[in-house]
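Pasting as-is:
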Amino acid sequence: MSGLEIERKFLVRKDRDWKRLASSCSHIQQGYFAAVNTVRVRIRDDKGYLTIKGPSSNGGLSRYEFERVISLEEAQQLMLLCEPGVIDKHRYLVPFEGHTFEVDEFHGDNEGLVLAEVELGSEDEAFAKPDFLGLEVTGDRHFYNSQMRRNPFKLWCDIVPEEYR
């Protein structure tokens, strides 16, 4: 896949039972390379991916994304070349009124953080919000995976309201 990625990101309310709504769950590990743009390798269950993301525009809502499937073996070898700070999370796909929300439950140094993203076809596309969505954090660099590997949630969790920790 490559093209313009348009997504909005939200904190997930801890007091809602969103997991029962999930249609699937996968385990994701991803590492990052030193680069001007975001360059990452991802292992999602038994598949590998190489992704390059351009700079964000419109307050973090849009950016160019290039992604290619690679073999699991290639992804495992590339992970060895990544900078320190692997992102480890489970991703749940939650369909809701015509959209699919990707809900990431983080582990390791980012334990306790749960984020939901929805990909849109245009920046002004309307979508229904399920009740588990909380504060919008689109464009807040604290919540970029590439940033959380260097500055994990455990170091700044106190800036997030209690109902999201």
